[in-house]
Amino acid sequence: MTRCFTFFGLAATLGLLLFAGGCGSRSTAQVEPREAESAAAPRDRVTAGPAVRKALTLTTSQPGWIDAFEETPLFPKVTGFVAEVLVDIGDAVSKDQTLVKLAIPEMHDELEQKEAMVVLAEAEIRQAEATVQAVKAAADTTAAKVELAQAGIVRAQADHARWQSEHTRIQSLAAERAVTEKLVDETLSQLRAAEAGQQEAAAHVTAAKAALAEAQAHIQKAEADQGAAAARLRVAQADLARTQTLAAYATIKAPFDGVVTRRNVDTGHYVQPANGGGAKPLVVVARTDVVRVFVDVPELEAPLVDGGDRGDTATVSVQALGGREFEARVTRTGWSLDASNRALRTEIDIPNTDGALRPGMYAVATIVLDRRSEAIALPIAALVREGPNTYCCTVESGSIARRPIQLGLRIGEEVEVVSGLDAGQLVVLARAESLKQGQPVEVLPPEQK
Asked: Average of pLDDT values for 169-197?
């Protein structure tokens, strides 16, 4: 019995040793394949493609509305009754076409009175002109009398000189007792008569000159009266012109070619000039051969909007016309931003010869803000941002290389690369932020994303 126990104990010991040896062999076999598998592990796969040049267009699409190029409310300038309304809403009108006529009887009477005042002033001018001619003729006559009087002085002086000489001669003869004293007295009397004639001629000259001065004063007065008559004529003519202008206000005319959009008056209505903002116009005329499209461009895009002769191109889509599109340019901008919405008021003028565009319609304007004809563009997912710096990841010899780049326009999910990247370089297009410098990668073409 002791032998049996010894045999079974030995058999059990051998079995345990064999089992332990077998387990150790299996553990070694399992470790070697795992190390081999780790050494042959595949690289990270990335989606990449070559950087290519393409055309980029930056646009902004904003809602807007259509308005008439011009719209004029027409009010009465004078008080009166509506005699005739010649148009209605929707009527096409041409410039200076009569729209409304007013009846103002008292103005016609006043107009006749002003016309009569002008005729009277013209008659006064003719009368003043005749008076000037008459006094000038009288002055000419007086001037002739002055000349005649001056000629009398010459005669009187000659006569005085003659008798002066004669008296001297006679006195000499009388001293020699060749003549009598009576003859001396006679020559002295003649000399004194000549002196008196000389004084009389001088007095005639003085009187004639005084008459001439009076005639010249009459001329000045007549000419002044003529000037006053001319001034009264101008006043009368101005008063007549004013009344004619007021009378012309009785006819309301179209300021331009357009369409009547509102009518607020009927025949027989009593109308008067508008004195406040609550007054209604008689009619409203809108010019629609050209329309304005108003768009508010947000602040961030406002600096890129250009108007004028070389304004940005724009496409205006009108939903009410089945999405019909109209090509145009930005015509003008408000330059400053509206404080209420921080937007730039932008206007686009569109020809509307067929009348399809109507004031009040809504529209969507797509404005081309900037263009790049040969730009390198990358998707947003290809960018890596670290603080103020921006990178993209290129694949060079199977490894990642981070390249610093400068960005330009952003259009949707693409952004322009201004510098730092050349066309044709292989760029990681997605998950770029998870890659490290020098990391080995396996490239997948973009279509296998």
From this structure: 76
Enter the pTM of the model.
0.64
What residues are paired with 257 via a beta bridge? none
Residue 316 to residue 67: CA distance in whole angstroms: 13
Confidence of residue 17 (pLDDT cuts 50, 70, 90): very low
Instruction: Kindly give, in sequence order, each residue whose CB lies less than 8 Å from that of residue 313, ignoring residues fewer than 6 positions away.
Output: 327, 328, 329, 367, 368
Q: Which of 383, 314, 321 is nearest to 350 (CA)?
A: 314
- Domain with 296, as residue range(s), is 287-372
314 and 366 Cβ atoms separated by less than 8 Å? yes
Q: Is residue 240 part of a domain?
A: yes
- Indicate if 272 and 292 belong to the same structural domain: no
Query: Torsion angle of alpha carbons 228, 234, 240, 244, nearest 10°?
Result: -170
CB 260 within 8 A of CB 124: no
The Cα 233–Cα 255 span in angstroms is 33
**Tokens 């901008």, residue located:** 333
Task: Compute the distance between CA of residue 216 and CA of residue 135 in angstroms, rounded to an integer.
Answer: 8
**Does a structural domain hold residue 2?**
no
- What confidence score (pLDDT) does residue 1 get? 37
Distances (CA, A) of 235 to 108, 117, 240: 19, 9, 8
Percent helix, strand, coil in the chain (nearest 5)?
45, 35, 20
CATH code, domain with 321: 2.40.30.170
**Residues 378 and 443 both lie in one domain:** yes
Spatial distance between the Cα atoms of 156 and 193, rounded to a whole number of angstroms: 10
In a domain, 23, yes or no: no
Please indicate, yes or no, whether residues 213 and 304 belong to a single structural domain of this protein: no
User: Rounded distance, CA 337 to CA 319, Å?
Assistant: 27
Which residue would you say has higher pLDDT here, 126 or 191?
A: 126
Distance CA 165, CA 157 (A): 12
Residue 166: give its domain's CATH number.
1.10.287.620
Judge if 90 and 215 occupy the same domain.
no
The SS3 of residue 14 is: helix
Higher pLDDT, 52 or 214: 52
pLDDT in tens, 320-348: 999 999 999 999 999 999 999 999 999 99
